[in-house]
Amino acid sequence: MRCLIPNIGSTSFKYRVLDMPAETVLAEGRVERIGQPGGECPDYQSTIAKCLATIAGEGNALGSISEIGAVGFKAVHTGPLSQSQIIGDDQLQAMEEFTFSGGIGENSWETRAAVLKGLSGFGIELDEKKNRAATGLGAISTETSPVKILIVPANEELIVARETVKVVSEARKK
């Protein structure tokens, strides 16, 4: 089954077309600064049109959009939480691991350093050299840090594609 997985942000749109269950990426792309000065597209409607024109048609990964068997959207879910939450000293002191994953947390050493600034009193000790050199999965905490600081690469589109195939397959059985 070929799945289109759009990941829609406040001013960005990225997508992948995956051939499942082989998990082969057939096409992918992104549009940044949607509706912003200097951005490629003025709105999401034109962004989606651009995506479809890039993935389907002569010379593209798909001959037509009819080859897409399912579309799965990435959505953020916070379970029972419905608003911002305050993390207090008790929660920080009980922490064993601090993980960065996806987007700028995974790809920006500057952001990780800024987030962790001033937290050494809670046992969160960043190794600056490891942080700057990090490329993918790994620990960026000092060897003696009570709280391990990790980077875990995220493949959100693949996760959504797997779940989409499950849901569509179950629905077709009914």
Describe the structure in your own words.
The chain has 174 residues and is α/β, with parallel strands linked by helices. The protein has two domains: 2-76, Nucleotidyltransferase, domain 5, CATH 3.30.420.40; 102-151, no CATH class. Helices cover 32% and strands 20% of the residues. A hairpin with a 4-residue loop joins strand 2 and strand 3 (24-31). The protein is elongated, with a radius of gyration of 20 Å. The relative contact order is 0.17.
The secondary-structure class comes to alpha/beta
Radius of gyration: 20 Å
Integer tally of domains? 2
Low-confidence stretches: 76-81
In CATH, the architecture of the largest domain is: 2-Layer Sandwich
Discrete helix count: 6
CA distance, first residue to last residue: 18 Å
Q: How would the global form be characterised?
A: elongated
What name does CATH use for the topology of the largest domain? Nucleotidyltransferase, domain 5
Q: Tell me the major beta sheet.
A: 4 strands, mixed
The level-1 CATH class of the largest domain? Alpha Beta
Strand segment tally:
7
Précis, in short:
The chain folds into two domains: 2-76, Nucleotidyltransferase, domain 5 (2-Layer Sandwich); 102-151, no CATH class. 32% of the residues lie in helices and 20% in strands.
Write the layout of secondary structure elements.
Blueprint: E1 2-8, E2 13-19, E3 24-31, H1 44-55, E4 70-71, H2 89-94, E5 97-100, H3 103-107, H4 109-116, H5 128-133, E6 138-139, E7 148-151, H6 156-173
Parallel strand pairs: 1-4, 5-7
Antiparallel strand pairs: 1-2, 2-3, 6-7
